[in-house]
Sequence to fold (387 residues):
Amino acid sequence: MARGLSLRVVAELAGLSEGHLSRIERGLRPVDRRSTLEAIAAALQVAPTDLTDGWHIATSRPDAAAYSALVALRAALADSSLGDPAVDTARPWPALAAALARLNEQLRPAHDYAGFGALLPGLIAELHVVAGTAGEHRAAALWGLLDCYAAAALSTKSLGDPSAAQVAAMHARDVAGVLGHPVASARAASLLAQAVTSPTRERTLTVARRAAAELAATDLGAPGAAEMCGMLHLTSSLAAAALRRPAESAEHLGAAAELAERVGDVSPYNNTFFGTANLTFWRMALAAEAGEGGKVVELARTVDPQRIPSPGRQAAYWSDLGRGLAMDRNRRPQAVVALRRAEELDPLTVRASPYVRSTVVDLVRRARRDAAGADLRGMAYRMGIAV
Fold:
C-alpha cells in the first residue's frame, strides 16, 4: 500500500507467484527462508527487518537486562576510536588480559549479551589507551579490540541494532589496518559481511568472497588463517543461497569443506569453532534455506551438537533442525521440541530470528490444544507473538 503496488506486481518483482505472496500476507504461509524475505524486501525497497515488525522486544526480566546493554554498547562504539580513547588511563595489562579471557572463554561462546554490556564499554576504552602507546602490549591490545568488536557486533545485531553492528565492524576494520595482518583483515571483513543491512545479500557476498580470495593468497598455515578463510567461504555460500545462486553457493561450500578437513573436527580459534562438525551445522542451515526439510533432519543425525562447546552454536543446530522438522506436517511436534531446546540454549538470539519466529507463527496456527501446543504457545508468548 505504501508503494502503491499491486500484489501481482510485488510478486513478480520478488520472483514469487501471486498466490504464494497472498498466502504469506494472510499468515497462511511462513517466511522461513532468507531468500524469500529478502526478495520481498528488495521488491518493496525496504530493509528485511521492516517486514518482520523490527526485532524481538523483551518480555521478561532476563531479556530486559540484556537489552539494556544496548545503551552502553552504543556509547562505547561512539566514544572510543584509535588515537582517541574515552579514558586517560588503563588497568595493568594482567587485569585487561584476564578480562579478555573471560570475554572469549565465557561470554562469547554463551552469547551472554548482558555480560557484554557490563564488560565491553570499559574494556574497549582501556584497550584503546594501551593500543595508543608504543608499549610491549600494544599488539595484544589491538587483537583484543578485534575480540571486543566481534562481541559488540554480534550482540547489537542480535538485540535489534544492525547499524551499531556495522559501526563495530568498521572499528574492527580500522584496527585490522593498523595491525597489518591478513588474518586480522579477514576477521574484520567477516564482521562487516555479517553486519551488512542492505535489502539483499549482494554486498555480503562481495565482501566475504573478496576477503576469502585475499586470505587464500597468503599463508593459510598461519594461526587462524584456514579457519577464517573457511568461515568467509561459508558466509559466501549462505549469501549466494539467499540470492538463489545454488551453483555459486555449492562452490563456496566445497572450498569451506576442503579447509575444514585441513583444520579437523573443531577449532577454538576466534570462537568460530570452524571444522568438520560446524560445517555440518552450516549444511543444515543451507538445506533449511533451500526448503529441504528432510535433508536437514538427515544431516542432523550425522553430528553431535555438543561437539561444539558453544551454547550459541548448539542453538543454531536445534533452530535449523526445528525449521527442517516443521516442513513435514507429521514431524511438527518434534519441531517444537527442537525449537524449545534452541530457545533454552540461546533465548535472545532464537527469539529474535525472523526465520524461527515465522516458523513458530506457522506452527501456532496449526497446533492443537495438546501438550505440544502449550509448549509452543509459551514460546510464542516469550517472542511477543499473539496467540
